[in-house]
Write a structure and sequence with these properties.
The protein is of the alpha/beta class. Helices cover 35% and strands 21% of the residues. It has 19 helices and 20 strands. It has a five-stranded parallel beta sheet, sandwiched between helices. A five-stranded mixed beta sheet has the order 6-7-10-8-9. The chain has a five-stranded parallel beta sheet with strand order 12-11-18-19-20, sandwiched between helices. It binds S-adenosyl-L-homocysteine (SAH). S-adenosyl-L-homocysteine (SAH) binds next to helix 5 and strand 10.
């Protein structure tokens, strides 16, 4: 059986700029061959079981030559696999997409192209530069600044100047002086606005504005970070008016979000809306315990009125318990049992089953839940707590101090830690890691062996999470309220402090 190859454009960096079709195809991939220009956020979408092959060209080591890349695509497809070739931007815009297809065509391997958002247009847009504008130009040109093997350029500067259009140079940073001189020699006005746009659509985006006459000097005064494009044309002057990305409250901030896989996205989206670049690292995964005997017995006892309180300490705890309850019986098994939830996220999970918590603690942590529930439940109450196998002790200790309270603590799920490939590389540019529970801190630490955790700046929900992070030497900020909104505000606060320190 022959496999198939999808040549997929990953967009310029921001994971939100990957197309829906690209995401869908990627989610089904068995092998993913990717470049250095593919954003880290997009790499985070590679399915867990998929084989990852790095075909980057930038780092110098561990890279594949073009022929090797072509061969990997062919070999994996011949094994019958679904192969995704992920390329930065659009695969057919200076992406050598055509070359990679030739061998596939020769061998009759089926393929599809999923176009992407090219950096040539998206990076100017993220800098407030419209690549065309009726008042300034009537064409836009994308040019490679790459030299031929004999070091000459394949660029007709006279023709470019004559078009009076916007010029966008890709792969042009090394050639910047030659490109500007070429334009000037062909008669371009030295006062023509020009800009270098670095690492566009990511948290490291930066713009250097000048003119064709001054761009080389202005750029020589600082280190230009690649990837970067050069834009030449009157439209560059609009960047100061239309620049928007840098004005967002979390612009320039890269945040790592670690939560159980099922929950990661809503927090990530809230941070993105504020302008942060977010990497999603589902550090922990929850799986129902293999042996459900104790859970089933508790459900049977519950159905016979054996408990007065049912206590949940996480959204996963709620869904795993109710999935089982509904598999065995139905919601009527709850009878008149009262419900307690540790916080709003857990409360929301209950609402999905049409249930409302009767009790929420004033501070969302295990100790407060235990202390306050003990104070408000009747003496002799029988309490069932279906939760993680590694749940925290303080909740139980507090409850057991109560008068005649019977506490049944049963493990409904185990927590598994996922190991992050290349954690060091990933963390190098991360400003903050967000943790929503002590177990995500433990999951992150277990999943990033070899990483120096004392360099991590951690934004934590609640004291317990923070103390777990501090134990690993992390610098911490605590969100007092255990809501996602409060957590996002804490990230904003920490980011402001970071920016003030830099100034
Ligand atoms: N197929 C890609 C381009 C590949 S050529 C696309 O459509 O975007 C590589 C060049 O793209 C880099 O040298 C740089 O000029 C540009 N580039 C890619 N991503 C970029 C980014 N995020 N910011 C600035 N330039 C980028």
């Amino acid at each position: 059986m022959k496999g198939k190859v999808w040549l997929v454009g990953a967009g310029p960096g921001d994971v939100g700029l990957m197309t829906l079709k690209g995401r869908e195809v990627l989610s089904q991939a068995e092998v993913v061959v990717y470049d250095a220009l593919v954003g880290d956020g997009v790499l985070g979408l590679i399915p867990e079981g998929a084989k990852r092959v790095y075909a980057g060209k930038r780092s110098g080591n561990h890279f594949l030559r073009q022929e090797e890349t072509n061969r990997v695509l062919l070999e994996e497809a011949l094994k019958g696999r679904r192969v995704v070739r992920l390329k930065g931007g659009d695969p057919f815009v200076f992406g050598r997409g055509g070359e990679e297809l030739e061998l596939l065509v020769q061998h009759g391997i089926p393929f599809e192209i999923v176009p992407g958002v090219t950096s040539a247009f998206a990076v100017p847009a993220y800098n407030g530069i419209p690549v065309t504008h009726r008042d300034f130009c009537s064409s836009v040109h994308i040019i490679t600044g790459h030299r031929r093997a004999d070091h000459s350029y394949d660029i007709d500067f006279d023709a470019l100047v004559r078009t009076r259009g916007t010029l966008i140079f890709l792969m042009g940073i090394a050639a910047l002086p030659d490109l500007m001189n070429g334009l000037l020699a062909a008669g371009m006005d030295p006062d023509m606005p020009a800009a270098v746009l670095e690492r566009g659509t990511t948290s490291k985006q930066r713009r250097v504005s000048a003119t064709v006459g001054t761009l080389e000097r202005v750029c020589s005064e600082r280190v230009i970070q690649t990837p970067a494009i050069i834009v030449v044309g009157k439209v560059c002057a609009l960047a100061d008016t239309f620049g928007w990305a840098e004005k967002r409250p979390l612009a320039g901030v890269r945040v790592l979000v670690t939560r159980p896989k099922e929950l990661v996205s809503s927090l990530a989206n809230m941070l993105r809306e504020k302008g942060a670049e977010v990497l999603e690292l589902p550090a922990i995964r929850t799986v129902p315990v293999k042996d459900m005997t104790a859970v089933d017995a508790a459900i049977e006892s519950l159905a016979k009125g054996g408990y007065d309180w049912l206590v949940f300490t996480s959204p996963s705890g709620v869904s795993i318990f109710f999935d089982r309850l509904i598999a065995l019986r139905d919601l009527r098994a709850l009878g008149g049992v009262r419900l307690a939830a540790i916080g709003q996220g857990t409360q929301k999970a209950l609402l999905k089953y049409g249930l409302r918590a009767d009790f929420l603690p004033s501070v969302y942590d295990g100790e407060t839940l235990g202390r306050e529930l003990r104070a408000s439940c009747a003496p002799g109450s029988r309490i069932l707590i279906p939760r993680a196998a590694i749940g925290n002790h303080e909740l139980i200790e507090e409850l057991e101090r109560g008068e005649n309270l019977t506490v049944t603590d049963i493990a409904t799920y185990d927590t598994e830690y996922a190991v992050t490939p290349d954690a060091e590389g990933l963390m190098a540019d991360v400003d903050f890691a967000v943790f929503t529970s002590a177990s995500t801190v433990r999951g992150f630490v277990a999943g990033t062996p070899g990483l120096d955790h004392s360099h991590v700046s951690a934004i934590c929900i609640g004291r317990q999470t923070a103390s777990e992070a501090q134990k690993r030497g992390m610098r911490t900020w605590i969100s007092e309220k255990a809501t996602l909104e409060a957590l996002v505000e804490t990230v904003e606060k920490a980011a402001r402090e970071m920016k003030n320190n830099e100034e």
